[in-house]
């Protein structure tokens, strides 16, 4: 398998090969955000790409939203589209090296973009950068997908075993409100740091 490194992702953005980008916040996350009442929670969106979720939260008045991506191009475009979004909350860098503590981490096609051998490390890292009682919320594919290239798929059974090491699984079920092209192929997850 090719290296899924910074160069790989930069090239994808520079060539417009961003088929993962729904073009807007997806319904499962929008509806989850819409019912949150505490807008002071610290939120991290790793592998944020065009970060539609961050723009949406910022618009709603959430004041501590952070985006993290290894691709400079993606973040530059995000900044241009969202000039009022605090620059100090835009982190260009590697998830594995990121330091911080968050109340909420959002998952939207980042987990499926990493090499599957790193899945245990993803769970550990996510748990490390969550505050006590913090949550991982988002969507994961529950469908077999790419074998040599992202997106990499998975199954509910795999996710239960993987995530329950470090996180209490509150919700892991087929999303009822997926965008049409993803309907029936993704699970909505809500998990709390143990
Ligand atoms: C499939 S894309 C998803 C982007 C965005 N979440 C979306 O739904 O449009 C995966 C993203 O993860 C980023 N990425 C990949 N490896 C990363 C890493 N180690 N650290 C930070 N970001 C990474 C890529 O640059 C890319 O933007």
TrEMBL record:
<dbReference type="Pfam" id="PF05724">
    <property type="entry name" value="TPMT"/>
</dbReference>
<dbReference type="InterPro" id="IPR029063">
    <property type="entry name" value="SAM-dependent_MTases_sf"/>
</dbReference>
<keyword id="KW-0808">Transferase</keyword>
<protein>
    <submittedName>
        <fullName>Methyltransferase domain-containing protein</fullName>
    </submittedName>
</protein>
<keyword id="KW-0597">Phosphoprotein</keyword>
<dbReference type="GO" id="GO:0008168">
    <property type="term" value="F:methyltransferase activity"/>
</dbReference>
<dbReference type="InterPro" id="IPR008854">
    <property type="entry name" value="TPMT"/>
</dbReference>
<dbReference type="GO" id="GO:0032259">
    <property type="term" value="P:methylation"/>
</dbReference>
<keyword id="KW-0489">Methyltransferase</keyword>
<keyword id="KW-0949">S-adenosyl-L-methionine</keyword>
